[in-house]
Amino acid sequence: RPYELIRPKSYDGTKPAPLVVLLHGYMDSGDGINFYLGLDDLVDGRGFLFTHPDGTTDSVGKKFWNATDACCNYQGSKVDDVAYLTAVLDDIVARNNVDPKRVFLIGHSNCGSTVLS
To answer: Is the whole model's pTM more than 0.85, yes or no?
Structure first.
């Protein structure tokens, strides 16, 4: 699955930058939760890298994170979203100068199951 990385205008790659990963809840999307919280508006002023990927979509069009039995894999999907998010993080780190001590995964609801996995 694709994801978008937003870099601050000041990013030059010579200094490690913090990374914020925003995860949506059940039935939402990366764009939706970002619109609600407006974190992309803070990227330039705060100087962090930012992404808000999407979970997978079930058969009725609702996005979700498949991580644990705690929430939201109501149709038995075999998608491994923990592996997906690990790959996203690995890709961002490989292409950018990320400060490993300042990587933050944030969100609410269903995403908490993914982060805790």
So the answer is: yes
